[in-house]
User: What shape does this take?
Amino acid sequence: MRALSLIFGILAALGLILGVLPLFGWLNWIFVLPPALLGLIFGALGKDRTATTLSAVVAVLAALRLMLGGGVL
Assistant: This one.
């Protein structure tokens, strides 16, 4: 579970890098939030603090970007 959670967290972080750019905020809905939430779930099931923290930080940053861009009201 730890490896799966880390993989989802890293993939979400890579998507977040691109999703922060202007006009690419929509990527956060498709390529960042779902893998980050899956990483949170698998990290919690595997009781791995590092992977859970990575996924939580990525999910919060993606949600913040969506709020600033008007994607989440």
In short: The two ends are 33 Å apart (CA to CA).
